[in-house]
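Support reply, case 0932

Customer input (verbatim):
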Amino acid sequence: MDEGFSLRHSRWECKYHVVFIPKYRRKVLYGRLRSDLGEVFRALARHKESHMEEGHLMMDHVHMLIAIPPKYAVSSVVGYIKGKSAIHIARTYGERKRNFVGQHFWARGYFVSTVGRDEAKIREYIRHQEQEDQRVDQLHMWS
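Our regenerated output:
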């Protein structure tokens, strides 16, 4: 384990592929909101001593590859990121848009999978998620 991170008494490499969606799968993650959220997610991850390795904001969901130290539960870090980013969205964009649900912007729950030997595949998947979704949609149209 050459790359890992370290705590006082251990070296670790715990990476997770996390996906979550806005409430009602609203397609609002484009434009100014999309460009602003990337930096917000990175800053919030740093608050929990985590590191966002890769991320992509789709129209109606978020993909991120995040390294979380073993002293934090994945659920607490993802919950923190979702909660604080919802507060940021409500404060920044809440006055302009009526349809944001305030501090309940994100839907409950999330998908998470551990990243092991297929880290390169997961990084590639996150980077090219939009093209992959379009390709799958086109295949479904012809079937």
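We compared this against your earlier run and they match. Two observations from our side: The chain has one domain: 5-142. Helices lie at 32-47, 74-93, 119-127, 129-142. Please reopen the case if you see a mismatch on your end.
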